[in-house]
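Handout, section 3.2

Students often ask what a structure token actually looks like in practice. Rather than define it abstractly, here is a full record for HTH-type transcriptional regulator CynR. The first block is the sequence as you would receive it.
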Amino acid sequence: MGIPVDVRGLRSFLAVAAAGSISRAAETLHIAQPALSLQIRQLEDTLGVALFTRSHRGVSVTAAGQRFEQHARDILKRVDLACEDVRDLVTDPEGRVAIGLPQSMAKILTVPLVRETIRRWPKVRLQVIELSTGYIPNHLLTGHIDIGLTFQANADPGLQFDHLVDEDLVLVAEPGRFGAARRRDVLPAKAIRLRDLSRYPIILPAGEHGLRALIDSHLRANEIDLHVLAEVNAIPELIALAAAGVGCTVLSYASVCAELRKGLLSASRVAEPAMSRPVFLCRSATMPLSVAASAVHELLTEIVSEQIADGSWPARVAMPTGPARSARSRSPSSAAASGRT
């Protein structure tokens, strides 16, 4: 026999947990404090545990209450999604959609994604949240974001990872160092061979950085040593050092696209062989996307494909056309690709 816990009780519980006070929560919910107190007591009696500890300063969530809070949020989100799917048409989606992007992806995708979402679906409240890739899986699992981009697919069964693209890494230097392109945001046709990187003074992230691990894996596979002048983990500082001519660096194209358009840097592809890193589109494997989130999900893949097709993003589409792949089918290089940008 099921436990008689209703949606109203769950919402009341979460309101009290967030407010830390039954009286403040009652004001937020526009109900009388005694009625809210009764709801909480009935919920605790039904569950057979204390969800809050009471004091003259308010209430705080117990250990059992913290676990119940996670379940309550998940249940209510599913209820909201179910209602939204019934209420809204695919042609006119609405609601909040939160997408987590690492810094480099945010630089290349935010403007077209926000602009096109506003144009197509004015009722969608898009939130673009810049996050280090290491934090994105947890934000997906807790429901703080709906979609994310990462450079690694982990083995969490609660997450689904689709191999979206393999993006090129490029050698970056001060303006004018490499040949001119027909447009500032398109790299010169002539590429630098991987083995020739040893001729350039290089500044890279330190060894524990995900991007450095990926670069080192390419170098070891091809028995190449670089002349590393210094190690700097912050990508903006690496860009500043390259722009000032202190040394070259190796970054993803997405990390430097804005500076290339402004003429603050020059960059060249690396070839024979090329260096690239995988980018994964990830989402919850257990929570269905809302109509609005599904629309944004499709728009994101559309924008990526268009940027690759017109040459403005040197990358290769990798997402399969069939069912999405799980983390267990991830790219062999993904373990070294969990850098921050």
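Discussion prompt for tutorial groups: The chain has two domains: 7-87, 95-341. How would you have guessed this from the sequence alone?
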